[in-house]
Amino acid sequence: MKVRYVDFSGQYAAERPRLLKIFDRVMREGEYISGRDVEEFEKKFARLCGAGHAIGVANATDALTLALKGLGVGPGDEVITAPNSFIASAGAIAQAGAIPVFVDVKPDQLMDPSMLSGALTRRTKAILPVHLTGKVCDMEAINRFARRHGLKVVEDAAQAVGAKRGGRAAGSFGDAACFSFHPLKNLNAAGDAGAIVTGDAALAARLRLLRNHGLKSRNEVSFWGYNSRLDTLQAAVLSERLKGLAEVTRRRRLNAALYRKGLAGVVECPNDEPGARDVYHLFVIQADRRDELQVFLKSKGISTAIHYPTPIHLQPSARNLRGKAGDFPEAERQSRRILSLPVHQYLTNRQIGHVIACIREFYRR
User: CATH number, domain at 283?
Assistant: First the structure.
């Protein structure tokens, strides 16, 4: 039995008539950048996140960079983040001219707030927690620390659209939050796209200028900016797919529950904390003999992934930060054990059962 890690063809088959109408309308109207579709999507997305404003941008990496710059982060500043994320989390800090400073994570893969004090210096300007896999970080503790030391908070919510903690949505905790609509995400565009949300009207106004060259009008430039606008077609696709996001989340959460039940006592599975609503962009198990298991599953027709095998502080791009093995033992330990199983909404119970049976077979051998 084949079990795909993602199923783009299944998604397109389910949505094809609606998407073709959207494509035809946008092409007929000829409004390809910004405009009504972008504004409508921004309003809907801001409501979803419990934020006053949403600013559509070209991708989530730009979202992080622009959010940091909009909050005044720049050369000489330090930003605390986690080492077990996709490279863009730290890369955006570097692109803003600042220095990434890492703290270790908890067993649930999320930033450990108890480590923040050890990373604090007089140059620390902000904290960038990563809501990895669709879980929301302990934002109450992170925000308390930030307020105590006068720091800005930018949520990297690229993997957490629709996730909640204590009844509050990802994106509603920080000074700003950044989302990805990459094709692999739960709410996905037909290409790259992203957004920043914030409750700060002045910051939102600055970000709208920053994403569009700093243009106040067609012929007046307020400051040096960027070209990072959300395309109209992507905004229209996202508005359509936003209608089905609750069902996508429901299916992924059901799939996660099936995995937890079937793999109990075999491998370590992620769990929802009390009061949390994880959206399972990824379902990441932690397992002994991970690499052997991945090869075995591939031989059984099951596609898996590793997010991420090399922590950021050990990447060649981070050599100037002088990180070394052993600096963040929990993140490094997890990097040798994590394996992402297929969890997308088009999986059947039979396919999930096949994945469970194969993992159990591997550990019985």
Answer: 3.90.1150.10
Q: What percent of the chain has pLDDT over 70?
A: 100
Model pLDDT for residues 177-221, shown as the tens digit of each residue: 999 999 999 999 999 999 999 999 999 999 999 999 999 999 999
Which CATH number fits the domain that encloses residue 139? 3.40.640.10
Proportion of the chain above pLDDT 90, given as a percent = 99
- Give the residue among 342, 340, 336, 344 at the shortest CA–CA distance from 355: 342
Residue 227 three-state SS:
strand
Is 54 in the same domain as 152?
A: yes
Q: Which residues contact 153 (CB under 8 A, 6 or more apart)?
A: 126, 127, 128, 129, 139, 142, 143, 146, 173, 174, 175
Tell me: the pLDDT tens digits for 29-49?
A: 999 998 999 999 999 999 999
One DSSP character per residue, 160-215 reads -TT-EETTEETTSSSSEEEEE--TTSSS--SS--EEEEES-HHHHHHHHHHTBTTE
**φ and ψ at residue 258, rounded to 5 degrees:** -65, -45
Phi/psi for 118 (5° steps) reads -75, -15
Tokens 């800090």 belong to residue: 93
What pLDDT is attached to residue 168? Answer: 98
pLDDT recorded at residue 289: 98
- pLDDT for position 299: 98
Q: How far apart are CA 365 and CA 266, in angstroms?
A: 13
User: How far apart, in Å, are the Cα atoms of 213 and each of 85, 92, 231, 274?
Assistant: 29, 18, 15, 44
Q: Examine the domain organization and report whether 123 and 254 are in the same domain.
A: no
Q: What is the DSSP letter of 243?
A: T
pTM metric for this prediction: 0.97
From edge to edge, which strands make up the β-sheet containing 276-277?
168-169, 164-165, 276-277
- Give the Cα separation of 82 and 146 in Å (integer): 16
| Rounded Cα distance, 46 and 317, in Å | 34
* SS3 assignment, position 334: helix
Would you say 234 and 45 are in contact if contact means Cβ atoms under 8 Å apart?
A: no
Residue 265 lies in a domain: yes
Average predicted confidence (pLDDT) for the chain = 97
For residues 93 and 233, membership in a common domain is answered with: yes
